[in-house]
Amino acid sequence: MPRKTADYPDWVMKHKKKGTYINKVGDKYYLYAAHSVRDKNTGKIRRVSDGYIGRITKEDGLIPSKSRIKTAPVAMEIGLSRTIISVSENILMSMHRSFPKHGNYVFSRAVLLYIYGSYSDELYEQSYLSLFFAGSDPPGQVTKTQLSEIERCSLMIADVMRKTYGDDLDALVKLFTNIRLIRIEENYYLSGMTNEILKLSEKYSITWKDSLWQK
Q1: 135 falls in which pLDDT band (50, 70, 90)?
Q2: Cβ atoms of 50 and 35 closer than 8 Å
Q3: Closest CA to 157 of 90, 57, 59
């Protein structure tokens, strides 16, 4: 019976990030980039390799391949943030009216506050929000008014999410937070969807089609 990835040594597992998988051959460990797709014929999720990243050893750690992949894959949260944006258009417009120059900043931080209970530049960079609002200029110094509005905006987002998804909200938040956008070099790939995610998406007509990752 093949060994489960979770049973691999800690010195191997520390190199496994979202959007990657480990393959053991003999007593050697290899790291690959990958994304998941749904087979149109069987409906099953299958893993698609995006290339070899490198070999992992206990002594030297990750030894990068000399392949064309020069940087490690990056996984960004997208499922919940993109869903929030889709139902919060009026809130975003309101932030633009209140803060013509920095409405995107206030709104995006409010989304992070709703998802994580806090917000930071690091969380923003690890989120689809940084792509959706690419080019937005952050304020040089955040004012008390903006800080207060971030909290108020987060409550508005919570309210519209409850009204939109009702009894399904808790399940949606739990499941959609796991949807990732994987960046490998200049290409983007959407992570695979579980049956539960697909059912909720269909129920609320949530589409995941986007030219960013479907080329």
Answers
A1: confident
A2: yes
A3: 90
